[in-house]
Amino acid sequence: MDDRTTPPGSLTPSLSESPVKSYGASGRGSASGSRTRVALACTDCDSRNYQTTRKVERQGQLALKKFCPSCNKHTVHKETK
Q1: Which listed residue, 50, 52, 74, 77, has the most CB atoms within 10 A of its CB?
Q2: Distance between CA atoms of residues 52 and 70, nearest Å
């Protein structure tokens, strides 16, 4: 048996497999255009408190319940452009 080959079922990864996985923030080896950055604005006071990423293929607006430091309470934050 050749020293450079691994037997079937071996737990050692081959050289073609990459041990690092990419989850999609742009500029770090991901497929271009898979995720986009969006700002989240409070629905009560309209201040933009958070930024996050979302998949481009996703339909509709992203809405999360987050803490608003301006209102000093948890409110719904919706995606803005």
Answers
A1: 77
A2: 19
Helix (H, G, I), strand (E, B) or coil at 1: coil
- At 48 the three-state DSSP class reads strand
Domains of the chain: 35-80 (2.20.28.120)
Q: How far apart are CA 79 and CA 27, in angstroms?
A: 22
Task: Please tell me the distance from the alpha carbon of residue 65 to that of residue 8, in angstroms, as a whole number.
Answer: 48
pLDDT, tens only, 7-60:
665 565 555 554 544 455 545 555 566 899 999 999 999 999 999 999 988 889
Cα–Cα distance list, 47 to 33, 65, 72, 80 (Å): 27, 14, 12, 11
For the record, the structure tokens of 43 come out as 């629905």
CA distance 6 to 16: 13
